[in-house]
User: Fold Acyl-coenzyme A oxidase from Diatraea saccharalis.
Amino acid sequence: MANVKCNPDLVRERAKCSFDVNELIHLIDGGENATKEKRHFEETIFSVKELQDAVPEEYLSHKDRYENAVRKATILRDVCREYMKKYNYKPNRFRVGHGVFKDVSPFLLHDGMFVATIIGQGTPEQQAEWLPKAENMQIIGTYAQTELGHGSFIRGLETRATYDPKTEEFILNNATLSSFKWWPGGLGSTVNHCIVVAQLFINGKSYGIQPFIVQIRDLNTHKPLPGVKVGEIGPKMGFQTANNGFLGFENFRIPRMNMLMKNAQVLKDGTFVKGMNEKLTYGTMVMVRVGIVGDCSLNTSLAATIAVRYSAVRHQSKIKAKEPEVQILDYVTQQHKLFIAIASSHVFRNVYSWLSKSYLNVMKDLAQGKQDHLPELHATACCLKAVCSRDAGSVVEECRLACGGHGYMTSSNLPLVYGFTIATVTYEGEQTVLLLQTARYLVKAWLAALQGKVLAPSVSYLSDWLKNDNVRWQNTPEGIVKGFQHVAAGKVKAAYDTIQKYIKLGKDYEDAWNLASVQLMKASEAHSRSILCEVSWGEVIRTSASPNLLQVLKQLAQLYLVYWTLETSGDFLVYSNISKDDIAILREKYEELLAAIRPNAVGLVDAFDLRDEILHSTLGSYDGRVYERLMEEALKSPLNQESVNASFHKYLKPLMEKAKL
Ligand SMILES: CCCCCCC/C=C/C(=O)SCCNC(=O)CCNC(=O)[C@H](O)C(C)(C)COP(=O)(O)OP(=O)(O)OC[C@H]1O[C@@H](n2cnc3c(N)ncnc32)[C@H](O)[C@@H]1OP(=O)(O)O
Ligand SMILES: Cc1cc2nc3c(=O)[nH]c(=O)nc-3n(C[C@H](O)[C@H](O)[C@H](O)COP(=O)(O)OP(=O)(O)OC[C@H]3O[C@@H](n4cnc5c(N)ncnc54)[C@H](O)[C@@H]3O)c2cc1C
Assistant:
């Protein structure tokens, strides 16, 4: 990239960077070698001509766009397979996927959830049967859980799997319209198999929801099998190439062994054997929620890179009347919009790495029959997924707005990035629903704290606060982290007290819960924010890096702490000992941090190391040729391929002529 002829503003910005950009790239990637491998892989992928689009995707019809995405998905699969064989390297297909598809691969659910559910929910025998086929794409699948009528409340799913002991089969049925599966990615026209989550019935008795592996299309003709009704759900806000679909069954039989039986089992005679914990059936969702925190880091880095580079190149208006128009990045309001995006990406990455470790530890425990830490993992993954996805959506939108009119252009890629980022707020557990799951855990933890019990590490601050809620405020990062814990503890207590108040007024627990649920949701958000602050600050101070880089990383981590303290200063005034003077000091600190980060802004986004092919943006490319690219892309419009469009003769001319009469 160094030899590319760049916009002079970007050249100047890069020259004034105070740290070694390569050092940060290696830190993000996990070492110099990891960067080398990543770059070699990406170079290989983006030099494949067939993966490059001659016409921008947006000009294609819905159908052509899908077919093009499938074409590229198959080529990408082949290239990756060869690459893995040759270099024994497991590539990050999702990162290059943004480059290849701009949007989402029709195989996203195959890789992200179909294979993962076979691993997570299948017995060793079932894995041996299905996994090799799924991994080498002999079969293509998705995860079909959500229905027209139910997505959040999965115990309410209506798809039925009724066991027939005579034939040792399950009979799948979707008797109502609301029971039709709706949303699964790839289901529309791509997959031939599904994990279907259905209500299990044996001898007329319900045994709750269970996962089944089901073939829905013929492997040769791709026609839906008899008894299967399947199709695509149509255009959406984003995810255009994900090929989301609908599905219903009519007396469709599958063998008994197609129920994934790692947890619960159905024996030949119809005996139901309960698993260790029925919630383990929800395991794939926990795994994907953890992954979404990592996706939030990538999505915010995409938007930050585009908006920061653009803001360094764009000059508009003046700060001082007699001086030239400034780079818009010099407006402190612009820095306020953008530097939180850079900081958030680092916070999400650090928290993702911490959460993944907890996830793996809990999986190891579960394999040995220990489930003590499962509730804490579920509660933590729920609130972090909810808050990070919401933050990422807001940050991406703020970056888009920070690019003014050009940010509204599809060629900036910001609308597409927003489309797939904002989807994460809803899928894999709608944000409020997940926050309320965490609130259940917090209320239980609060009760345990009141009873003097020892709490799990992520909520132990509740006991500390109960012992002493009158801690002197300190304007240090550690003091701010403590402050976030006080806010969270204060909100948990307030929500708990509200529930008790309603119960005393004669409400039952469920109604009292619903009445207090805004407070519960806010308590859960505050808990999540306190984890984000504590973990990210902890990770940064443990980072081993050169003094210059460490200084910049600390500035970003502090910016995150101070930004959120100021954004939620009302809560701090209510629940901590912060004073108005402390808030004024923090405002000053915030301005100092913006100024300190300013010279490194371009270096920081360069360190995300996102190739132009992944950014896909007229505003964000490495060379900063913004206006040239905007014009080049505009000229690709089909309307610019002819000097006069047929509509002139058909409609406009007759209209004008009629007007003459
Ligand atoms: C790289 C991959 C990219 C993938 C792209 C993905 C595209 C999108 C895919 C999808 O969206 S797939 C569909 C995802 N759907 C959801 O996430 C549904 C959300 N709803 C739920 O998870 C559940 O319905 C619920 C909200 C958790 C409620 O479940 P339920 O009604 O059964 O529980 P409750 O009676 O409320 O009891 C809760 C009880 O259970 C514990 N618990 C709940 N879930 C889990 C879990 N996953 N693991 C462990 N424990 C769980 C919870 O803590 C409560 O415990 P107690 O308080 O009773 O002790
Ligand atoms: C892009 C995209 C891809 C998807 N891919 C898949 C897929 O591959 N496979 C799959 O199975 N599903 C998929 N889904 C479905 C997704 O998982 C659900 O849409 C999601 O879980 C939300 O459920 P819902 O649509 O039922 O929302 P609802 O639950 O109907 O939410 C509507 C409103 O009701 C509120 N609400 C609901 N319950 C409660 C409650 N208990 N307390 C308080 N408020 C509540 C919510 O907060 C929200 O404000 C996808 C969705 C999207 C958008």
